[in-house]
Design brief:
Distance between the termini: 60 Å
Order of helices and strands: HHHEEHEHEEEHEEEEHEHEEH
Length: about 300
Amino acid sequence: MVMEGADRARELEVFSTIARTGSFSAAGRALGLTPSAVSRTIDRIEARLGVRLLIRTTRALTLTAEGQAYLGAARRILADLDEAERVIADQGAPRGRLRVSAAFSHGRLCIVPLLGDFAHRYPHILIDISLTDTVVDVAAGQADVAIRFGPLADSALTARRLGETGRSVVASPAYLQRHGTPRVPEDLLQHNCLNFNFRRAEPVWPFRREGRDYALAVTGTIEANSGETLGQLAADGVGIARVGNFGVVDELASGRLVPLLEDFNPGDVEPIHAVFVGGANMPARVRVFVDYLAERLR
């Protein structure tokens, strides 16, 4: 007689639980079965296979070689069933932990303010966000979604464009009143220019004159790893900074910062992407979060 799949899976669960707990009675308690029901299940498996899987004595329960092989197969099959159910559940109602990695400044200013509304829309998703300027390895499972700036390296990951940001040279009116306003890029050589300190930062600021791009090396008294920090220092009158526009929107709107040398701005624009592991088995929580960011950030 061919058994139903659910019955066969139940047998595997019973056998695996016996091996884990070490007795029929303990397995029965774990599964809500009587010891006699557990015993009948093992008898049925052994009769169907024609081999002994367990050696039972009054003192101990031992797996035979066939029992060890059957246990390995049972555990693999049960794990596959659990994984299949998890994947199907994820593709249905979005739920589970969603690990998000974002650069500190952009995350604090642009991503974090959206999380409350997203959590209200999807209350079964647990948002686990890390703000760091370190590039995490999404392919290795360090995050489910990472927000990246600039050109992307070739990889097996999927990328969804969320928008773009330009850069501007900015200073406070108070600083300019004390030190004068630069009219051409070369005037910056006489000013306190605030720079990034991480290795991937360009040691020069790019400009464009009469259609030709060129770079100017600038120096200053403070370096930082955050555009938000540099923008704050510039707004406080410490010096001149070249930062992403997203980080100084409020300061520019309020007049605490003013743009400089706009006629020489090279128009360099950095694309912003959400990077994640795509494919048919992509969890619904990842899909809805990326869709949400694309909707709100454009």
